[in-house]
Amino acid sequence: MARRMKWEIVHVPGEPERSLEVDTVDVFASNIEPKLANNIVRQLNQVVPLENLRHVKRVRRRTAEGKVELSVILCLSGEYEKDAEALPRGIHQLISAYNLCPYRAKVAKHAAISKEEWEEQCKLWPTSYHPSTNLDGIATLSEGELQLIFNYMDSAIQLTKMSYAGGKVQNAAVIVDPLRGQVIASAHDQTSYPCPLTFKTSARGGCVDECGVTIASQSDSNEFGNNQDNSVKKFALQKCNEYSGVSCLNPWGWTTQRASHQNSSGKSDNKFSWHPLRHAAIVAIENAAARDRELFPGLGSSESQSEPIDILPNPSDNCPSKRQKIQVFEELNMEKEFLHNSEPNELMRPYLCTGFDIYLVWEPCTLCAMALVHQRIRRIFFALPNPNAGALGSVYRLQGEKSLNHHYSVFRISIPEQNLHEIELNASNNSSNKAESKEEI
Amino acid sequence: MAFETGHDSASKMRFMELALEQARFALENLEVPVGCVIVEDGKVISSGSNRTSETRNATRHAEMEAIDTLLEEWQMIGLDQLEVAEIFSRCDLYVTCEPCIMCTTALSILGIREVFYGCANDKFGGCGSVLSLHDSNSEKLPRGALRGKGFKCTGGLLSEEAVALFRSFYEQGNPNAPKPHRPVRIAQEAE
What we know:
The complex is a heterodimer. By secondary structure, chain A is of the alpha+beta class. Chain A is built from 14 helices and twelve strands. In chain A, the strands form three sheets. A six-stranded mixed beta sheet of chain A has the order 1-12-11-10-8-9. In chain A, helix 4 (about 145-160) packs parallel to helix 14 (about 415-440). The two termini of chain A are about 45 Å apart. Residues about 195-230, about 235-240, about 260-270, about 300-340 and about 430-440 of chain A have low confidence and may be disordered. In chain B, about 50% of the residues are buried. In chain B, helix 5 (about 100-110) links the parallel strand 3 and strand 4. In chain B, helix 1 (about 5-30) packs parallel to helix 6 (about 160-170). The model of chain B is unreliable at about 185-190 (pLDDT under 50). The chains are: A alpha+beta, B alpha/beta. Chains A and B meet through helix 6, helix 10 and helix 13 of A and helix 2, helix 3, helix 4 and helix 5 of B.
């Protein structure tokens, strides 16, 4: 398989792929001599144009036993079912002129709305596929927007680099305001805190089995399988041990990550040195909420419905609750700049994360995906599927749960192989660090 | 729901009353009125109420509040992951409304023993209403999916009281909802 060199984006719909059983209509077709194809097709298009089957290709080209075989659709067969004599005169003339042997064939009745459906249709008879007629919103993204989207995903990938726990790759999340082109919050998994001594447990049991499962299901999965590069599978296979640090891939694995330094300096500004629920998306939401409270203090609190609209936030005002103190802004400078450049007011204040996008390296689990529903995220972009516990198509499909009061759009971004390697490289770099620290012990 | 008799049933009602108290506290603070308590060995060890408005973080459900209090406490006294998991496996949660999909996942991740809730949560419920994430056997999962830890789950405990609180909340209106907001359907009562 060709190496993936480009960034690509795929919509992950709320419905499982439309049943791959293709709705068909019957046609008469015939094999033809390749050198006569031009003539025959020109005449056919005049006599019986396929007006309602514009997505169907008139000619099918197949290679059988090294020989090229061309077939052409003569006409719809439906109305002539009982009486082949009733075929249009032009067809009769063609049949006798070129010694054609009509046979019945089935072609897709409707234009495909997904690549997968199109591939299925083509097994019957080739059709054309225009992603621009997709309902998924990708078509409306401009080149510039796509580039921004890919850049944000890249920054999420970079964030996985900077955050390891016990030599393991973690998931990372970046929340973005696409209208202002602004990073609102970012975070990585905080289920276990970086501690060089925790790696011992990772080699034990569980993970290997789980990763075996992971690989198997990746190759089986219809959902993402079609877009899944071999390189991704290989990557997964090689790096499964490091993957066990990705919270959403292994939500129940926290009990095996026993930290030996509970009260060491490893404890950061955070009041939790580890926390089974602090997946990247959850922490990012928390950071976004903290930013909101910081930028628009008082405006959202219970007693403040009549606050004047144009308030300059004053951090010393409105004494932060103890929960706010734990917040460390990763974009503190950006925040300050923002405050200086534009005075936040009620009009600018978003309701939760309405209108914002989130970039995640791995597909989120149900904990995170539902949190993102609650927080009203507009779009989710993720790079790698999560066959263990993914909630956006792999195992569950929250974007398609009709009862929920909010629905985001979901996109999967296929990342170039070299970026995959970046994650891989980091993991192995870190493994070697790990090894060094082991020697020191 | 079959009514149990005797001490056991009475103590369940008592715990749910305490959860309702938490929910009332939320309502007074103009929060969505959901409350919960976590019980270990017949004793309430933590409680929580919804704080989504105050924090502007829509994930700060009552369950999350109660869970975080415990995790903070237990880490303070130096418990490690295995010890914490062991305690959770002996804890029950009483919550006035069926846990949402997020909270159900959280409770499964922590490995809680049993959940009792008041009214069902038709829109978001993860314990049977929308998904059944509490039941590690029921879902037809695709091959390769991990099966989470399940827990026993019983609804309908003092559900009228829980629904009444929702009703008062939506009558007073959610001051933080975007305008104009659609009329909100009140969660159906569990049987």
